[in-house]
Amino acid sequence: MAVPVTAPEVPASPTTDADRVRPVSARHFVKLKLRVMGNNFRGQGWRIAMFVGGVIAGLWFAVLGFFLLAAPGLAGEPTYALMVSAFGGGLLVLGWLLLPLVFFGVDETLDPARFALLPLSRRTLVTGLFAAALVSVPAVAALVATGGLVLTAGALGGPAAALVAAVGVVAGMLVCVAASRAMTSAFATMLRSRRVRDLAAVLLAVAAALFGPLQIAVMAALQDADWTRLTGVARVVGWTPFGAPWTMGVDVAEGRAWAVPVKLLVTAATIGALLWWWSRSLESAMVGAASSGPAKQRGGPVGGAVTQLFPGALGWARRGRFGALMARECRYWWRDARRRANLITIAVIGLFVPLMVNVGGTNLPSDSGLDLSTVGSSPVLVSVSLVFVGVLASITLANQFGFDGSAYAANVVAGVPGRLELRARMAAFSVYVVPMLAVVAIVLGVVLGRPAWLGVMAGALLASYGAGLAINAFVSVLGAYSLPETSNPFAMNTGAGVAKGFLTLLSMIASAVAALPMVIAAALLGDAWLWLALPFGLAYGLGAALLGAYLAGDVLDRRTPELLTAVTPRR
Amino acid sequence: MTHEQPALALRGLAKRFDGKVAVAGVDLDVPAGSFYGLLGPNGAGKTTTLSMAVGLLRPDAGGAWVLGHDVWADPVRAKQLLGVMPDGVRLFDRLNGAELLAYHGLLRGMDPAVVDQRAAELLDVLALGDAGRTLVVDYSAGMKKKIGLACALLHGPRLLVLDEPFEAVDPVSAALIRDILHRYVVGGGTVVFSSHVMEVVERLCSHVAILADGTIKRVGTLTEVRGERSLEDVFVEVVGGRTATGEELAWLSR
Fold first, then answer.
1. Residue B13 has pLDDT above 90, yes or no
2. Contact criterion met (CB below 8 Å) for A41 and A47
3. Which terminus of chain B is more exposed, N or C, with fewer CB under 10 A?
4. Given this model, what pLDDT does residue B184 score?
5. A110/A35 Cα distance (integer angstroms)
6. Each residue of A343-396: pLDDT tens digit?
7. A489 near A337, Cβ under 8 Å?
8. Which residues are paired to B195 by β-bridges?
9. Helix, strand, or coil here: B250?
10. B1-81+158-241, what's its fold?
11. How many Å apart are CA B56 and CA B219, to the nearest integer?
C-alpha cells in the first residue's frame, strides 16, 4: 500500500543561510493548501470529477443566493433591504457555525497536528490556517452569494454604500469561516475527552432545542405580517455579530453612516475572539495528537478473551464470525470519537427536526382558532419528517469503511464474505439506532397527543432506515474515501469536502425516494394505514436492508482490495 | 503435507502507481519449511510485493499461490493457510489486546474455547497480559508489533507473512519475536518476512531474496547469496548505494 507521495514542502523557510530565518506568512499556508489539493487530484480522475461537480453545485447556490440577496436592490424596495441583509447574513453565519457539526465536517487538508514540530508562533499558525481555510469552494461560493448585498446597497445608496457593503461582506465572510473553525475545533477537543462527552451532547441538544422556539417566533411574526416588528428585529440582529457585517451597506444607504465604524468594531472584535478561541483549542489538538487515545478502561471482572469482546447487550449473539464482526462494530460505535459524534448527531437531530416540523406547524394557525393537531400535522407530514430522520440515521454508514481506515485489512486477510460483513455492520449500527428511533416515535406521539399514530411513525422510520441502509451499503462500497487519521471527529480529507457533501446529498435523495411508498400510502390509504404501517414498514425496511446487503455484498467481494486502497489514508 | 509444493509462489507480479512502476515482475519460490528474508532498501517494493502476495492489493499482472492455492482465484482456501502481519496498517486498535485476539480468532471461524485458551497463552508469552484492559491504540510501538504477531499466529497458519516485524521493536521484544518465529519454523511452518536489517536476516534466515527497484536482484539460500562476503557488502553492491559522502555536507561540521 506504499503509494509514493511526494511530501509537500514544509512552509518553514529554507535554511540555506542558517543565520537569517525568513518569516513565515499566511501566503505559505495558502500555497501549501493549494499544492496539497493539487497533489490529491493527481492521477485520480474521479476525484477531479467530484471536485468539478462540487464547484458546479457551489456556483449554483452562489448565484441563487446572489439574486436573493440582491433582490431588494434590483426591485428598488428599500423596506426589505435591512431585513434581507440582517436575516440572510445571520442565517449564513448560523449555517457556517452549525452545519459542519451536523453534516459536512470541516476540510482538514492542513491538519494542525502536522505543524506541531515546526518553530511557528501560535499567531502565525492561526492566521496561516485561517487564510488557508478561506481558500475553499464553500467560502468562495458564499462570498459570491453575499455579493448580492453589495448590489443592493449600491442600487439604494450609491457607490459609497456599495463600497462599505463590500468591506462588510468580506468581513462577514471572515466571521463565518472563523466561527466554523473555532466551533468544530472546540467540539473536537471536548468530544475527545470522555468525561466531557456527555456535556457536549447536552450542549448540542440545547443548541438544537433553541431552533424550535426561534422557528415558532419567526412563523408567528410572518403570520402577523407585522413588517414593522420584523424590521425592529432585523435592526437588533444588525447589531449582533450575526448581522453587523452584512448590514453596514444598508446603514449607509439609509443615512446611518455613523453606525459603520461601530459595526466594524463589533465584527473585528468577533473575529478576534473567535480566532483566540480557535487558537486555544488548536493547541490542545496539536499536543493531544501525540497520544490522544481514550483513557484506560475501567477494571472489572476479566473473563476470557471472547467474553471480553462481546458487550453485555450482545450476550445473546452466537460466538461466530457474524457475532465477532457485530461485537467489534458495537464497541467501535462507542469507543471511536468520530463515530460517537455521528451517533450524538443522529440522536439530537432525529428528535428535534420532527418536533420542529410538526409542533411548529401546529402553533402556526393558532390565532385563527382552528383545531391544532388536524391542521398543523397529519400522518403525511409526520411520515415525511420521520423519513428524513430514518434517512439521516442511515446516511452515517455512507462511508462506514472509511471509519475503519487501514484496519479493514484485518477483515480482508481473514477473507470475510461481503454479505456477512455488510449484514453484521448493519446489525451493529441498528443496536444503537433502532432504540433511538423508537424513542423518537414515542416522544413524538406523546408530544403531539396522537398515540394512534405510533404505528405510522414507527413504520415510516423503519422503512426509510432500512431503505437507507441498502442504498448506503452500495455507497459505502463504491464511493468510500479515506478519513484523515486525526483525533478531530469532524475532520475531512483532501480538500474535496464539497464533492463529498454532494455525494452524501445524492445518497440521501436516493434513500428518500426509496422510502417514498410510505408517504404515498399514508396519503392514500387513510385510517387503514394506521394499522398497516408498522408491519408493512418493518417488512419493507428489513427486506430492503437484506436485499441491499445481498447485492452490495457481491460487489464488495469483487472489489475488496480496491476498497481497502480507497480507505487507506495516503501518507 | 507435500514438501515439493512451495509454501508461497509468486509469478510475474507487477504493479504501477500513477504510472510509476512499483513492482516490475517478481518471481519467487518460497520452499515449505524455510525461513525466508526479503531484503531491500526503502521504496524497493517490499510492502507492495507482500501486499499482492497475501491478497491485500490487486496486482496489475501475475499471480500468487499459497501451498498451491491461488490467492486471487481461490482466496478462501489460501487465506485459511495464511497468517499476515502488514506494516503501516492499523489494527482495530480501539479494542484491548484480548478483545482483538478474540475478534481475529472468531473471524477465522475458530471455536470460542480454543480462541480463549490460545489468546491467554499468547498474551502471557508475549508479556502483554499486564496491559490488561488498555486499548491497543495506547500500546507502545513494540507492543503493537507483538499483538499484531499474535493476531497472525492465532489460527495456526501454515505460512506466516510478516512485513517489517522488527521495525521499532526494542531488543528484548525482538529476541522474543525471534524465538517464537524460530519455534514456528522448527515445527514445520514457513516464514516470509521483509526487513532492511542485515543482522537479523543473517542470524535467522535460511533463504534470502534481495529486492531493489521492483525486481529481484539476488535470490537463493543465505550461503549462496552471501558467498564469502558479509550480507551487508553484497546488499550495498547490489542496490548500488553510495557509502561515503564527499564535500557536499561540509556545513554539518561547524
1. yes
2. yes
3. C
4. 93
5. 11
6. 877 887 788 778 777 765 444 444 433 344 444 567 888 888 899 899 989 988
7. yes
8. B39
9. helix
10. Rossmann fold (3.40.50)
11. 24
Q: Which amino acid is at A569?
A: P
Beta-strand ranges (E) seen in B73-164 are 82-85, 159-163
Closest Cα to residue A276, out of A124, A123, A172?
Answer: A123
Please list every residue in chain B whose beta carbon sits closer than 8 Å to the beta carbon of residue A571: 88
Label the pairing between strands B35-39 and B190-195: parallel
pLDDT tens for B15-53 read 998 888 999 999 999 999 999 999 998 888 999 999 999
More confident residue, A286 or A255: A255
Could you state, in order of their start, the residue ranges of all structural domains in chain B?
Answer: 1-81+158-241, 91-156
Interfacial B residues in 73-92 facing A (CB < 8 Å)? 75-76, 79-80, 82, 84, 86, 88-92
DSSP string across B78-131: HHHTEEEE-SS----TTSBHHHHHHHHHHHTT--HHHHHHHHHHHHHHTT-GGG
Q: Rounded to the nearest 5 degrees, what angle is found at the Cα of A198, between the Cα atoms of A196 and A202?
A: 115
DSSP string for A49-96: HHHHHHHHHHHHHHHHHHHHHHHHHHHT-HHHHHHHHHHHHHHHHHHH
Residues A411/A392, Cβ–Cβ less than 8 Å: no
For chain B, give the mean pLDDT. 89
Residue type (1 letter), B56 = L
CA A36, A39, A45, A48 dihedral sign is positive
In angstroms, the CA A511 to CA A505 distance is: 10
Reported as a single tens digit per residue, the pLDDT across B203-220 is: 899 999 999 989 999 999
Q: Phi, psi (5° rounding) for residue A479?
A: -115, 30
Beta bridge partners of B96: B135
User: Cα–Cα distance between B99 and A206 in angstroms, integer?
Assistant: 37
Give the integer Cα–Cα distance in Å for B62 and B64: 7
Chain B residues touching A406 at Cβ < 8 A: 86, 88-90
Q: In this complex, do B99 and A564 lie within 8 Å of one another by their Cβ atoms? A: no
**Subunit contact A304:B116, Cβ cutoff 8 A:** yes
- Beta bridge partners of residue B20, listed in sequence order: B17
